[in-house]
Amino acid sequence: MAGARGTTAAKTSKAAIAQLGWNQIRPAAVVLISGTEGFLADRSIRLLRDLLRAEDPSLEINQVFADSYAPGELVTMASPSLFGEPRFIRVDNVEKCSDSFLAEAIDYLANPAEGATVVLRHAGGVRGKRLLDAIRAASGTAIEVVCTELKKDAEKSEFAAAEFATAGRRVRPEALRALVAAFSGDLAELAAACAQLMADTTGDITEDTVTTYYGGRSEVNAFAVADLAIAGRHGEALLGLRQALASGTDPVPLVAAFAMKLRTMAKVSSPTVPQGSMAKAFGLAPWQVDRAKRDLRGWNDQGLGRCIQLVAETDAAVKGAGGDPLYALENLVHTIASRGRIRS
Hints:
- There is one protein chain.
- The chain has helices at 38-55, 73-78, 99-110, 129-136, 153-166, 173-183, 187-200, 207-214, 218-230, 234-246, 251-268, 278-282, 286-295, 301-318, 325-337; strands at residues 18-21, 30-34, 60-65, 87-92, 116-122, 142-146.
- The chain is an alpha/beta fold.
- The chain folds into two domains: 18-146, Rossmann fold; 154-337, Zinc Finger, Delta Prime, domain 3, CATH 1.20.272.
- Helix 2 (73-78) links the parallel strand 3 (60-65) and strand 4.
């Protein structure tokens, strides 16, 4: 379970019910889990289920599918049993719900069963809007938990940081960057990677730790080479480049890593945005701003602009626009390592 970081509450001003982030879920007669991020939705539902089970181990758990709903299922499952155990009913595919489910769910909302928690998972779309509107107007009966997709690297970084913080483990900013780079496409994989690192290691999680476990992923290799070049360590960067290519790393993510680093440096070099506002203005985590500021030492605007232009040319070269891709990559490393200074 992650901490307060990474929570994303809805901004629907018309809603009369509480709208919470995924890790703020709490018991209610009816809980709407909305949003497109399935991993966070599943985790939120598990958190609630485990909370209710901890309160009463006799919790009765059932699942309903709204798109293949049999009339009467919801009322039957929610009704008290002979021994009065609490009931937890998870309803999936509400965004594809049948007409019979829609009608019965709206009726149920007007008179929910005592001791029952009904969790409705709606992944988006217009189907079931009448039910969603009814839930959002049901003050005192329902809550909504919003699970929106984490699209920005800063949001994913905050999520990963919270994974470690919740377990009482310290993680270095560079390690977070490497993890997010390696697993940016899948939040479930990112969470699993965090869990593996914590299970298999002790002490602080560093960039070397991430490289040891996930150095085979092209994204990790790419950022390692970019970091060396930007720091002016030409020989080490060139060696890292050749080793990455020899191990099968695709040249495209290598160039993409350079592009991402240089673009971030260009953003934080802006004299018009106050230092304290940069993270919010550019959609970055604070540590990304600090890192880019450090990376800028020894650079000037002309050199940075020259390298950004060269990255675009190199990207075209490695994607088949002509020329020697290996020469283009090595020339990029040399130019960046010299901070964009023109060779005499």
